[in-house]
Amino acid sequence: MSETVAEAELKVGDELPPLSVRVTRDQLVRYAGASLDFNPIHWNERFATEVGLPGVIAHGMLTMALGGRLVTGWLGDPGRLVEYGARFTRPVVVPDDGSGALVEFTGKVGEVRDDGTARIDITAKFEGRTVLGKAQAVVRL
Fold first, then answer.
1. Which candidate, 66, 62, 59, 60, places its Cα nearest to that of 19?
2. Distance CA 139, CA 6 (A)
3. Virtual CA dihedral for 65, 23, 36, 134, nearest 10 degrees?
4. Which residues pair with 87 in a beta bridge?
5. Is 92 exposed, middle or buried (0-12, 13-18, 19+ CB in 10 A)?
6. 121, CA 20 to 30 Å: which among 22, 66, 111, 135?
7. Best CATH choice for the domain 19-140 from the list 3.40.605.10, 3.10.150.10, 3.10.129.10, 3.90.850.10
8. What counts of helices (H) and strands (E) characterise the chain?
9. 71 vs 136: CA distance, rounded Å
10. What is the CA angle 62-63-66, rounded to 5?
């Protein structure tokens, strides 16, 4: 049986289990419906390239949400996520090929605080390049 975060003694530098997610065009359509963000850069190849993008891109908030999933999956209880923020630094280009774009998430404990919380530093990469900057979550232990 694996140890939960509450049972573990966290230390700065401890790593979360990595998470790899394939973002597909199908997911973009579903996310657009759920978020009501129907910007054509997220579904129309011609429009996306006309405005200077390399192709259809994932919603930044979808990418950020997946980073949150890294943390909440590790916590086992999404209610223990106290705060989460990130900057969008580079787009995730989602090809229309059925397999989508592979986004890889890692995280590590950046700070353990006296108030029973910890800061988790998240890294999100697509094609080996960072797509979220200053991605950090505060969690209740």
1. 66
2. 11
3. 30
4. 133
5. buried
6. 22
7. 3.10.129.10
8. 3, 6
9. 10
10. 85
pLDDT band at 1 (very low <50, low <70, confident <90, very high): very low
pLDDT for 5: 61
Mapped to the 3 state alphabet, what secondary structure does 13-52 carry? CCECCCEEEEECHHHHHHHHHHHCCCCHHHCCHHHHHHCC
Helices 60-75 and 25-35 pack at an angle, to 10 degrees, of: 90
Both tokens of 137, joined, read: 């979550």
- Report the pLDDT averaged over residues 44-73: 98
**Domain ranges, ordered by start, for the chain:** 19-140
Which one-letter amino acid corresponds to residue 55?
A: G
8 alpha carbon, distance to own chain's centre: 24
pLDDT digits (tens, 9 = 90+) for 97-111: 989 999 999 999 999
